[in-house]
Write a structure and sequence with these properties.
heterodimer, A: mainly alpha, 2 strands
Chain lengths: ~350, ~500
């Protein structure tokens, strides 16, 4: 207890000294980048997420207009092959052939095999289905996140900068949409636009996903527009557009990026939730939520049908959340996370770095 | 203003839903020769002859009848009035939402405070990880896992309740790590916490196993008295410190009174009207706490009374838990349950038709068990993160330094100065969170087949049942508004600077 107290009483001055030394001569974006790179959890998550994205999107075929990329996995998600019976315990068919344990632990050699994630009830390759589902889910996530962030920023910026009746109208409009629970709105949208494909579904969900961000951005703009540098810009004759885009927006970008990340992690869960209720992506297309909901009853007999999509959802959402956390720490000027225990100890002894 | 917003968003939802589907679609493919007249009847019933933007006002007129005492939410497609269906469904959902919210708040705030006080410790890092993991879990996925592991396998375990030694070691090790990490400021305190918590748990589990306690649980009068005394010490330590004699004596005497009333309460619990007994018990407990305060404290009675009444309340809860434990044995072995007490579906056991308050209560609680855990897991993460962040912010404030500088002890600084100011923003989170909990409840109900609003909601969208959907919307929006109002009131109660109604 005495140690704690000593630190906090030394507190502000010494810490901010070190803090300013650490960031001396760096621009704002360099500081942010440096802090983000130092955030181990966020960096790990970033690499894992990039890995997952690359892995998932290269596995199955994608066609962009006339260009068609075949995908490196041998099965397609709609293709039906013979059910694997051999090596399955208890007469279950289509069990996963993936074995990550080397032979000196469980007696069988490490292998990927014919169907690493197993097969579903009619013999479709589950690895291919999970890859396809993850593609859809990631796509939905990015579209909702980007669209929501873009709309939210524009609406929040306009409301916060112009204030007065513009603000009143826009914020009441935001309240309209907030009052309807997301899942209710999402279901109504999903039920009717789900059959148009995942992209359309994401697009329509994104149109309604901006409310949280717009409120935050508005608050940020209300705060920033009163600061001296905005006055200075105005005195120097800058146009309204220039003030918004060149002076205020770069200062609010932290809030926007952070909440966009959190919106994305919410979006992937929203999509899975909707698909679970049957209002999201519809068969024959697959998404991770749809896979889980179709096979939840199969859990006791063929648990792999349930585990794999869940693991992918969690991995993606977890990575996005950690990246968001890292970004928040990096953008927050009050954060001193860069300090290690050693720094703290040296602070307590009253040395400076 | 709020009413205008409600009007706007309900209008939006009504038209969106009306535009996006055709309630007559099922008749298009029907080969029934009567199809013409069926279509006609449906049009008549749903007033489809009026275009949706205008039809909304027919619905609105019915709803506005609430002010003259005759609300009319319209009828669902099968003909029952929406109002009646909703009245059955609302308590089910509310029970779920409130239960989960309360548990999530209690757990989340406690752990959030501890992580903030142990910032950058291993406990902090692992709890941060756990919180993020919770954020990332799809609720139905958790629910299916819970069904499998907490219900089916636990029930299997109950048919032969022997705790294997491996499990005892595992659970004790986990508890030991948890408490060691919370208590450990230095290596020494860590090991003290580790061994005492771990040893205690292992001993407890071994005794439970040896005595066959799982099938015949109960606290018993002696252990109850010991617990009451311990609770008195604990509550006093947290609120005023055991060094503060008046509050210690007051809560100790409350504990003694609780232990004495144990036997009379047992016979009272057998009476008919249990609600009266429970309410009466609460009043008596508070009165006893008041008397104890009057006797032992001359000055500063407010905090002392708070301490002793909290003690009384917790002891009362323990008494109820004890009674439920006594009900457990007969309940589990009864023919309707057959040693499978943790259910996976439904909100109550339809086979049990009992007038016994305690059996019904136990049944309800057991059915709430898994859905509440599922919902709590999701909400709890938000509270942990938010409490931690806010408390850290508050602890950096000047007035905390002032409080420390004038020599207040750490507990007073944290509980009185820091924690109270942390509560203010958390109340706002409560409101924001409420909407998401309702959303989560809609999904959870579907997984656990509760007949609440979630199931109705799915049905409403699936069958283009506008009246039902709007009824559900009406209820959720009203709940959100009430939550908003409560938060405003709490806000002004917690923060004297806030004046509701001034300004805007």
């Amino acid at each position: 207890m005495s140690e704690d107290r000593k630190q906090s009483s030394f507190g502000a001055d010494t810490q901010s000294d070190i803090f300013s030394k650490e960031t001396e001569g760096l621009s704002q974006s360099q500081i942010v980048r440096k802090r983000f790179f130092q955030h181990k959890a966020a960096m790990t998550s970033l690499f894992v997420l990039l890995g997952i994205v690359f892995f998932v999107f290269s596995a199955q075929s994608i066609s962009l207009g006339p260009v068609k990329y075949p995908g490196w996995w041998k099965y397609d998600y709609e293709q039906i092959s013979d059910l694997r019976i051999a090596e399955c315990e208890g007469g279950v068919v289509g069990c996963p052939s993936l074995d990550v344990l080397p032979s000196f632990i469980d007696g069988t050699p490490m292998q990927i095999g014919e169907h690493p994630f197993g097969q579903d009830d009619i013999g479709r390759d589950y690895f291919a289905m999970v890859m396809r589902g993850a593609q859809r889910s990631l796509l939905v996530m990015v579209i909702i996140g980007t669209l929501g962030a873009a709309l939210g920023t524009v609406i929040g910026a306009i409301a916060g900068f112009f204030r007065g009746w513009v603000d009143a109208i826009l914020m009441r409009f935001t309240d309209f949409i907030i009052t309807v629970p997301t899942i209710v709105l999402g279901s109504v949208i999903g039920y009717h636009f789900g059959n148009l494909g995942a992209v359309f579904l994401a697009f329509f969900l994104g149109i309604f996903a901006w409310t949280g961000i717009s409120r935050l951005v508005r608050g940020e703009f209300l705060k920033l527009r009163e600061l001296e540098f905005v006055d200075a810009a105005r005195v120097a004759g800058a146009s309204t557009r220039r003030i918004i885009f060149k002076h205020i927006l770069p200062n609010a970008v932290g809030v926007i990026i952070v909440s966009a990340t959190l919106l994305m992690s919410g979006a992937i869960l929203l999509e899975t939730g909707l698909s679970y209720l049957g209002f999201g992506v519809v068969p024959p297309d697959v998404s991770l939520g749809l896979l889980i909901s179709s096979y939840q009853d199969a859990f006791t007999v063929r648990p792999w049908l349930f585990w794999w999509p869940g693991i992918f959802i969690i991995a993606v959402a977890l990575c996005v959340n950690f990246i968001g956390d890292g970004l928040r720490d990096a953008f927050d000027p009050r954060q001193r996370r860069g300090m290690s225990r050693k720094d703290k100890a040296s602070l307590a002894r009253g040395e400076s770095k | 203003m709020l009413l205008v917003i409600l009007f706007g968003s309900s209008y939006l939802l009504y038209n969106l839903q009306a535009l996006s589907g055709d309630p007559l679609a099922e008749f298009k493919t029907s080969r029934d020769p009567e199809v013409e007249s069926q279509i006609k009847a449906t049009i008549e019933q749903l007033r489809l002859d009026v275009p949706a933007p205008l039809r909304y006002f027919i619905w609105l007129r019915g709803v506005l009848g609430i002010f003259i005492g005759q609300p009319d939410f319209g009828k669902v497609r099968t003909g029952e009035p929406v109002g009646e269906i909703l009245i059955d469904a609302i308590p089910v959902t509310i029970r779920l939402v409130f239960g989960a919210t309360i548990v999530a708040i209690l757990l989340g705030i406690t752990i959030g405070v501890v992580t903030a006080l142990r910032q950058y410790s291993r406990f902090d890092y692992s709890m941060t990880f756990v919180a993020f993991l919770m954020f990332s879990l799809p609720i139905f996925w958790v629910a299916v896992l819970l069904k499998e592991f907490m219900a089916i396998q636990f029930n299997n375990f109950l048919s032969e309740p022997n705790i294997p030694t491996g499990w005892i070691i595992g659970i004790a090790g986990f508890v030991a790590l948890f408490f060691g990490a919370i208590l450990g400021r230095s290596r020494r305190t860590f090991w003290i916490g580790f061994f005492s918590a771990g040893g205690f748990t292992a001993l407890l589990l071994a005794i439970i196993d040896a005595r066959g306690w799982i099938l015949e649980p109960g606290i018993g009068p002696i252990f109850f008295a010991v617990m009451a005394i311990l609770i008195a010490f604990g509550v006093t330590q947290i609120s005023m410190g055991v060094g503060h004699k008046p509050s210690l004596y007051a809560s100790l005497s409350v504990a003694v009174a609780g232990a004495i009333t144990y036997f009379p309460m047992q016979s009272l619990f057998k009476r008919e009207s249990q609600v009266t007994v429970l309410l009466g018990g609460l009043v008596v407990a508070l009165v006893i706490a008041g008397i104890a305060t009057m006797i032992f404290a001359r000055i500063d009675r407010g905090p002392v009374y708070r301490t002793s009444s909290i003690t009384a309340f917790i002891i009362g809860i323990i008494m109820i838990v004890d009674k439920l434990m006594q009900t457990w044995g007969p309940y589990v072995s009864s023919g309707d349950v057959q040693y499978r007490p943790v259910p996976t579906i439904g909100e109550r056991n339809p086979l049990i038709e009992t007038t016994d308050f305690w059996v019904a209560l136990l049944d309800t609680l057991l059915h709430m068990f898994l859905p509440t855990i599922a919902l709590t897991l999701i909400g709890f993460a938000g509270y942990v993160r938010y409490t931690r962040g806010t408390l850290l912010d508050v602890l950096n404030q000047d007035y905390i330094r002032t409080a420390r500088a004038k020599g207040l002890n750490e507990r007073t600084v944290i509980m009185r100065h820091a924690f109270r100011n942390t509560m203010i923003p958390i109340v706002t989170l409560l409101v924001v969170d409420f909407a998401s909990v309702v959303g989560g409840a809609l999904i959870t109900e579907n997984v656990f087949a509760w007949r609440g609003m979630g199931t109705l909601f799915r049905q409403a969208i699936g069958t283009f049942d506008l009246n039902l959907l709007m009824g559900i919307f009406f209820v959720t929006a009203t709940l959100a508004l009430v939550a908003n109002l409560v938060a405003d009131l709490l806000y002004s109660a917690l923060d004297p600077r806030v004046r509701v109604g001034s300004g805007k």
